Amino acid sequence: MDKLENNFKRLLLEISFDGRSYGGWQIQPDNPTVQKLVQDTLAKLYSGQDIKLTGSSRTDAGVHAAGFAASFAVPARPYILPDKLKKALNGLLPDSIAVRTVKEVPADFHARFDTAGKAYTYVINLGDKNPFSTHYSWRPHRKLDIERMREAAPHLIGTHDFSSFVVNRDEIDEAVRTIYNIDFQVFGQYLCITFTGDGFLYKMIRCLAGALEAVGAGKISGAELKTILEHKDRRKAPDTAPPYGLFLVKVFYDEQEMADFKLENIRSYRNVPC
Amino acid sequence: MDKLENNFKRLLLEISFDGRSYGGWQIQPDNPTVQKLVQDTLAKLYSGQDIKLTGSSRTDAGVHAAGFAASFAVPARPYILPDKLKKALNGLLPDSIAVRTVKEVPADFHARFDTAGKAYTYVINLGDKNPFSTHYSWRPHRKLDIERMREAAPHLIGTHDFSSFVVNRDEIDEAVRTIYNIDFQVFGQYLCITFTGDGFLYKMIRCLAGALEAVGAGKISGAELKTILEHKDRRKAPDTAPPYGLFLVKVFYDEQEMADFKLENIRSYRNVPC
After folding, report:
1. What is the DSSP string of B167-201?
2. Which residues have C-beta within 8 Å of that of residue B243, sequence separation ≥ 6?
3. Which of B13, B14, B132 best probes binding to A when mutated, by most A CB atoms within 10 angstroms?
4. pLDDT tens-digit map of B47-85
5. Residue A63, SS3?
6. Residues of B in contact with A136 (CB under 8 A)
7. What span, in angstroms and rounded, lies between the C-alpha atoms of B130 and B134?
8. What global pTM score does this model have?
9. How far is it, in rounded angstroms, from Cα B215 to Cα B142?
10. Which of A6, A124, A218, B241 is an S-S bond match for B209, by CB 3.0 to 4.6 Å?
């Protein structure tokens, strides 16, 4: 730690990416991933040094991000100023990846373990086919009653075992997570459901979005949603919603920032097409 | 005409498309075009009949459309109801093309000759790199003074010979056109410049957008813009802006509809990412 503090700097990146072209964040063989591209670009900028990015989350293939977070350590000298680094990264990275902010963080900062929470938005197109949003929203082809969805959502808020809403449950020890809030907003023909929580399991938001859609379509009731949660069995729950409607909008490292969060503020960056 | 009135119906389509994948509207060899795809799909729906679409304009390769207009004639029987036709077309067409409306028009209606005017919006990203808008806006990499642009724009309004703002001038007889209005709106980090006029020449809006950007960047003054217009010589004018910032937003067949037009109304369809 002493050595790190003296000779290294730790930097935190906020990254936007269009998930269409990538097999998610995490490096994997035979698939382009965001981590791989950003790491390789950093290595070029830091004269071939081997740089390891620590991501805030994994994010599945096809999922988009307005504000993914990742940190890395680099030697304190020569030092590239955060603004210069941002500019250089954006110049070298493809169109589908943008670094929004670069800031110095304490040497012992951890991009995954230090999170206060995360906000994800699932976008549903309630209207007609639109060539500019096909890859950024799910259009379920059945009429949804938003009031029904809004009334059922509180059953999911709080600390629960979310085994009914996770894919590959057997690969994890623990399915208990806390959802702080589920917020519904309609912008034009788009319904944005924003989930804020301490962390989310593999495909959990897509499972929850699929279940809420089934409530909206009148396939299950709010009471049935509660029963499905209590069953702790994925087979009891409705289908998983597709990845292209999902955006990781913000990773919080500060409780107050999370409390003040409004989707409106993210929309002003126009990184969420709703 | 009598024969047409008795045995044929004429239908008008309003079409949205993402220009990224296409060589523009008009059929050409070796390049996928929107006209080709929509015509082929119509032929399938009308049992292999040879259907010819008449488009409102040509639109260059890479340019987007929120409301392109095209009409065609079909035998009166069997008749496919407009709403059914819209649904069938949208189901068969790729994600990048959507039919927004289908309506019956008089037998002698002409999609090009009957236009009252057209509105195009050129989108400029004034802010940071954004993976969700790279293909739908131009990011000029220099600081723009919007007030300077707004003050210079009226030099272009009215009836003028636009020879300085057209590509391939020698291929057309006549470069006189009328611009009714040039409107500037800022949404978040995007500047939307909306041009309304009786018709536009090949790449004319992209030439005008390039010239207004040069004014905003302080490279030419409003007075110089006026002089360039008077020169009637493309070589005197600034560079052409790229196609991916341009949207054909609306084709008007009614003077009143054009007078009432507001970009806000088009944005509510979320077909213009600004």
Report:
1. SSGGG-S--EEEEEEEEEEEETTEEEEEEEES---
2. B19, B60, B61, B62, B63, B206
3. B132
4. 878 899 999 998 889 999 999 999 999 988 778 999 999
5. coil
6. 132
7. 6
8. 0.92
9. 12
10. B241
User: Cis omega (within 30 of 0) on the bond before B32?
Assistant: no
What domains can you pick out in chain B, each with its CATH number? 2-105 (3.30.70.580), 117-253 (3.30.70.660)
* The three-state (H, E, C) secondary structure of A190-228, written as one string: EEEEEEEECCCCCCHHHHHHHHHHHHHCCCCCHHHHHHH
Residue A60 a catalytic site member: yes
Residue type, B156: L
pLDDT tens track, chain A, 274 positions: 445 556 889 999 999 999 998 989 999 888 899 999 999 999 999 987 889 999 999 888 999 999 999 999 998 877 899 999 999 999 999 999 999 999 999 999 999 999 999 999 999 999 999 999 889 999 998 999 999 999 999 999 999 999 999 998 888 889 999 999 999 998 888 899 999 999 999 999 999 999 999 999 999 999 999 999 999 999 999 999 999 999 999 999 999 999 998 887 777 665 565 5
* A43: its two tokens: 């290595």
